[in-house]
Amino acid sequence: MKKSGILNRHLAGAIAELGHGDEVLICDAGMPIPPGPRVVDLAFRAGVPSFAEVLDGLLDELVVEGATAALEVRAANPETASLLGDRFPDLDLIPHDDLKARTASARLVVRTGEARPYANVLVRCGVFF
């Protein structure tokens, strides 16, 4: 058994398969997930695991070259907006409907137990060299 890092075998395997330019949606429990992307559902109950916990765990594992979130997060969920701004200084904000449409092209969707609006971010993988 792994001693540290991501222990969920489905998530660890999905991360290992990602390449440069692939997109990963980290989302709350209410985000509609279109058919197509691989989904790793970590939601256990409302709020568990939190969006912040999952995001920070994934950022420990991924090289990210860009991130996109819903414009509405600023008004509807200032705490998550602040978190995203701290993690991604060049965060791109687009209307929520546009973000939902872009999820169909994501390679991976990681669903958290977050139960607050607009706790979603689409990250674009970079390379480590």
Written description of the protein model:
With 129 residues, the chain is an alpha/beta fold. The chain is 31% helix and 22% strand. The protein has a 6-stranded mixed sheet with strand order 2-5-1-6-3-4, sandwiched between helices. The model has no long low-confidence stretch (mean pLDDT 95).
In short:
The chain is α/β, with parallel strands linked by helices. It is built from five helices and six strands, in the order αββαβααβαββ. It has helices spanning 9-16, 51-61, 73-76, 78-87, 96-102, and strands spanning 23-27, 38-41, 64-70, 92-94, 108-111, 121-125.
Q: What are the defining features of this structure?
A:
129 residues, alpha/beta, 31% helix, 22% strand
Main sheet specs: 6 strands, mixed
Q: N-to-C terminal Cα separation, in Å? A: 29 Å
Radius of gyration: 14 Å
Describe the strand arrangement of the main beta sheet, using strand numbers: 2-5-1-6-3-4
How many runs of DSSP E, i.e. beta strands? 6
Overall pLDDT confidence: 95
**Helix share bin:** 25-40%
Overall 3D shape:
globular
Question: Count of helical segments?
Answer: 5
Approximately what portion of the residues adopt beta-strand conformation?
A: 15-25%
The H/E string reads HEEHEHHEHEE
Q: Which class best fits the helix and strand makeup?
A: alpha/beta
Low-confidence stretches at least 5 residues in length (pLDDT < 50)?
none
